[in-house]
Amino acid sequence: MKRWLLLGSLMCLSSIGALASPIMCTSGTFQDYIGLPAGGCQFGNATFSNFVFAYTSSDGTTAASPGKGAASVSVSPETQPTPDSDHPGLQFGTANLTPAIGFFQDYTFTFTVTAMPGFNLDDAFLKMTGAFLIGSGSATTVETLTPSTGPQTSLNGFFTDTDTTHKTSTVTYPTTSSLTVTKDIKLTNTSSTLFDLSAVSNDFSLLDGSSVPEPVTAASIGFGLCCLALNLRKRGKKGLVR
């Protein structure tokens, strides 16, 4: 009987957990996002989790140098180019990438995007904002997308002193429930006296995935199993009385 009682309790807890909502994504730093609970945060119809930060350079600065660590990178929810819950994304502040002439500085951000129950991911949009330089150099953003199902794909944005027309990029991939995103942002200063990239942002389009159980449905199933377990326990007690 203890086994049935334990099973019933676990199923009840499971149904309650299915109704629990993740915390909401808010403006903060990359360090704040690294410290999110295991479930990450929700923005629109997606959750963002598993944040990892890396910094490299050729000028001797490291992630431990002033203004170069995860706490120096701003992160904020952003929907573009379409401002609705089916196009959630994040904007990453990159103004602290300031390579001197002859050097480069590079951020690498990794995180997971997961569609909420009832939705699937199918494309992504990348935008580099506030990009300008006087002199020569380049800023590149290479974003690798690894779906939980399907082949890996990528987004590529860049600008140079001679080409400023490729600061956005889009890609479509087979529908999937989640993506692992690796975003590599690199500024290389050849001879520029002024060089800036304010932010890099992206969004992830979502489609209705009606084949995926809604949270309420999952909770109902859990509640039903809970009731079944308790009913079996009662029958077991009646058998003992006989």
Shape: globular
Radius of gyration, whole Å = 24 Å
How many DSSP helices?
3
Q: Give the CA-CA distance, first to last residue.
A: 16 Å
Q: Name the assembly state.
A: single chain
- Derived from helix and strand composition plus strand pairing, the structural class reads alpha+beta
> Into which percentage range does the β-strand content fall?
35-45%
Name the helix and strand elements from N-terminus to C-terminus, one letter apiece.
HEEHEEEEEEEEEEEEEH
- Measured as a percent range, the helix fraction is 10-25%
Spatial order of the strands forming the largest sheet: 1-3-4-7-13-10-11
Main sheet makeup: 7 strands, mixed
The low-pLDDT segments are: 1-20, 211-221
Task: Give the overall average pLDDT.
Answer: 85
Counting DSSP E segments of at least 2 residues, the number of strands comes to: 15
Topology of this protein?
Layout (H helix, E strand, L loop, with lengths): L1 H18 L3 E2 L3 E2 H5 L6 E3 L2 E12 L16 E5 L10 E5 L10 E12 L3 E11 L2 E3 L2 E11 L5 E8 L7 E9 L1 E12 L4 E3 L2 E10 L6 H27 L1
Parallel strand pairs: 1-3
Antiparallel strand pairs: 2-5, 3-4, 4-7, 5-6, 6-15, 7-13, 8-12, 8-15, 9-14, 10-11, 10-13
Helix pairs in contact: 1-3
Account of the protein in words:
The structure is a single chain. Helices cover 21% and strands 45% of the residues. The protein is of the alpha+beta class and 242 residues long. The chain contains three helices and 15 strands. The strands form three sheets. It has a seven-stranded mixed sheet with strand order 1-3-4-7-13-10-11. Strands 2-5-6-15-8-12 form a six-stranded antiparallel sheet. A two-stranded antiparallel sheet has the order 9-14. The longest helix is centred in the C-terminal third of the chain and has 27 residues, at 215-241.
